[in-house]
Amino acid sequence: MGVLFNVPDFVWTMINLVVLYFILRKVLFKPVTEFMENRANSIRQQLEESKENNQKALQLKENYENLMDLIYTEAEKIKKEAEKEALERYDEIIKQAKADAELLKAKAREEIERERIEMMKNMKNEIINLALDAASKVIEANMDTEANRKLVDDAVSKVSIA
């Protein structure tokens, strides 16, 4: 019982460990290392793509903001033009309404004047007829009716009723 350390067993164990190391290195370590390197490359590539996508997103955001500013400016311009056109149209409608009102007033004045003249003629004829009737009843003479009408016309014209 004496020996705790057996040299041949130790040598065989060392040989087995070295062989196992080379086998594991060939079978396990190399594929794991390659896998880790591939994974690191993949992560690196994804980071680069992420940075590129982030840059593209920032560029798109900037383009969008510029486009929105342009659209807002254009909308304001269109709004101001529409307001200007509406105001011009409003003024035009008001001017036209005033012109129409003035035209109606002028036509009404003309109509009133025409009716006044017509009324004055009718009144003159009525006055002449009444005067003739009154004169013929007062005189009760058989005078020529046309001569009487001419006398009354001349008298009324001198008074200038119309």
Compute the number of structural domains: 1
State the major sheet. none
Output the structural class.
Answer: mainly alpha
Measured as a percent range, the helix fraction is over 70%
Report the principal-axis shape: rod-shaped
Cα distance, first to last residue?
Answer: 168 Å
Number of helices: 2
What fraction of the residues are assigned to beta strands by DSSP? under 5%
Order of helices and strands: HH
Unreliable runs, pLDDT <50, ≥5 residues? Answer: none
Tally of strands: 0
Overall average pLDDT = 85
Radius of gyration: 61 Å
Tell me what you see in this structure.
It contains two helices and no strands. The protein has 162 residues and is mainly α. The model has no long low-confidence stretch (mean pLDDT 85).
